[in-house]
Specification:
Blueprint lengths: L7 E6 L13 H19 L2 H6 E12 L8 E12 L2 E10 L2 E14 L10 H7 L6
Antiparallel strand pairs: 1-3, 2-5, 3-4, 4-5
Length: 136
């Protein structure tokens, strides 16, 4: 049984190449940001041997756009690992500028063995690093 994961904050730098012909961030940049945020979350919490031995590929993203983002906005993605099931991980990510929600993303990812590139389950001790036990 998995507990509740801690939210992970990822600072986003809005670059000039993120801006589209309408003067705001192109929708494709949100996908790039979610990928960067999820991978940063993995690298920040997983032990080095697990990071070296596993790769992550996105299987599905469902994005709800709420408000546009602009060049030089202070944007933060809050990543929450919802569950790990087999070789799959399910994430929720909220992208904000201050208190304004810019986008909400549900995504699923597949863990791969870095050598064979085949789906790989994480060990329980690695999963537990993402779902800390509460002090009840």
């Amino acid at each position: 049984m998995q507990g509740t994961a801690l939210p992970y904050q990822f600072q986003i730098d809005v670059a000039r190449e993120d801006i589209d012909f309408m003067g705001h961030v192109n929708n494709a940049s949100y996908l790039k940001w979610v990928q960067e945020a999820v991978i940063s979350h993995w690298r920040g919490l997983a032990p080095p041997d697990a990071v070296a031995g596993h790769l992550w590929v996105a299987l599905k993203h469902e994005i709800t756009y709420r408000r546009p983002a602009f060049l030089d906005d202070d944007v933060v993605a809050t990543v929450l690992l919802e569950k790990v099931q087999g070789a799959r991980a399910f994430y929720g990510t909220v992208i904000k500028r201050g208190t304004e929600v810019l986008a909400e993303v549900k995504s699923s990812w597949c863990c791969l063995d870095a050598e064979t590139l085949r789906p790989a389950r994480l060990t329980q001790n690695v999963i537990e690093r993402f779902f800390p036990k509460s002090d009840d």
